[in-house]
Amino acid sequence: VIVFLLTGRKFLVCISGKTLNADKMFIEQLKNVMEINLQEVSKVDKCDFILVFCPVVSRAGTDIEATMKTLHSISDTKPAVLVVLHHTFDVHSIVPETWRSVTRKNLITIDCLFHEDQGFHKCEKNNESLSKI
Asked: What's the average model confidence in pLDDT over 63-86?
């Protein structure tokens, strides 16, 4: 189990693709489980960490690689959480652990499930992922 501790409470959102509001639902869930009051900021120099959302639309590896390039253009040094959003109807779906394909320091990669109609699923996989932050 990877444990990643974020310091600070200010975060910047980076979205790579169409999340269909799963990013907003994730942030609300994160605020509910974190014991500090999180605050979204609009500039990288004002944030303590970056929340990066990567919806998987083609192949996870290709989508993650493109998202990492976007993150690299924003900051190479800020701690970041890469939220890989797997589109599925099934809340019990088993998805690959994508953290194995990311080597950036100061980054945790978590896998979550979402659907275009239901948004960010309320399921065990997403609860586990939120608890890793």
From this structure: 94
